[in-house]
Amino acid sequence: MKKRIGLLAALTAVLLALFWFVNGNGDSGEDGGTAVPSNYGDTLGFKPHRLELQRFIEQKLTGEAGVYTNYKETNEAAEAATGHETLSESAGLLMRYYALTGQKEAFDAVWSQAKKTLATNFGFSYRYSPLQGKKYMVNAVVDDLRIIRALHEAETAFGEEYGRDAAHYGDLLYKHNVRKDRLFDFYDSTYRKTNDFLTLCYTDFQSIRLLEVPSKDKRNLEERLFEIVSGGYLSEGFPFYETRYNYTTGKYGDHEGEISTIESLLTVLSLAEIGKERSASITYLKQAVDAGKLYGRYDRKGKPVTDIQSTAAYAIAAMIGSVIGDRELYESSVRRMEQFRIDDVASPLNGSYGNAAAEEVYSFDNLTALLAYAY
To answer: Is 337 helix (H, G, I), strand (E, B) or coil?
Structure first.
């Protein structure tokens, strides 16, 4: 009898170990692979809306240079990207979507386009203006990291050639945007220098783990960044995060006393992908989503300073739900997100996310929604 009990105990231990190996949350150490979403989107009946949004983006929000920043054209001369300018942010989001949904031909088209208009000898230009014929010689590290992750996801989905591209651009990012275990927002190739701060939501831990650099260097970088991000946690009462950290002063900063929901949620998502999200953040998020009161900005104590809500905030909340395996959070977030969906077959903007009357449809809202559908 004792022998039989011992065998059963051993078998149980093996089965439990196998369960955790297969179903682990991705916190597997410095060299963990790409965090795999739970893929709730298609199983919950959202696929028709996903495909409709994909068609809109491909047919009406994309030109020869890439995805438009906004459906509505401008002279593309403003300080911030507008109109039919294209962004490295957009390329990375769309590449990730095509890799996760197994669309090789579409992925290749976007990647080819990105290499033509955005690739540089220091990584990727954050912005390209077709009208001005101008490639801005500054990168955004979060967007470069997203493209690198998309290439790794394409390697998994389509073949090793994408992994070689990921390694090449990962080397460029590490060379230009990392200094002494510090990650910097951007590198300006004209002046050959970085800025002096880190925007916390730019710390994409899972993508950093994919960089092909010595494990000790990568571990030191991640530990330092985790220390900075953790130090930016506001409070248990308002479990969002500071906006940026200044390396020179050692102090955190915000948007003139305001906290951006989208930026904080991106930080929570990054932490969730390595199994380091705070339970208070998830509880707070679920309550806000359930109540339909996830506002765009708050003061530092958690009081809303605007009643504006956004497609992107709910899309990111859905991604968080998928990554942590919370089907309820995913579904409720997507349903809230779809309140901003244009559902009018007579409109040229049908199936997209934006303002139909003003004909304003922004790339970030639509691409984060599209990616959320794939999670």
So the answer is: helix
Beta-carbon-side half-sphere exposure of residue 37 (alpha carbons within 13 Å):
27
Token representation of residue 355 = 């303002």
CA distance 199 to 288: 24
pLDDT score recorded for residue 92: 98
Cα–Cα dist 262/284, whole Å = 14
pLDDT band at 39 (very low <50, low <70, confident <90, very high): confident
Both tokens of residue 252? 């955190």
**CB 278 within 8 Å of CB 239:** yes
Query: Under 8 Å CB-to-CB from 196, ≥6 apart: which residues?
Result: 184, 246, 247, 248
Predicted pLDDT of residue 100: 97
CA atoms within 13 A on the CB side of 119: 14
pTM over 0.70: yes
Nearest-angstrom CA–CA distance, 85 and 68: 6
Whether the Cβ atoms of residue 26 and residue 35 lie closer than 8 Å to each other: yes
CA angle 154, 103, 91 (to 5 degrees): 65
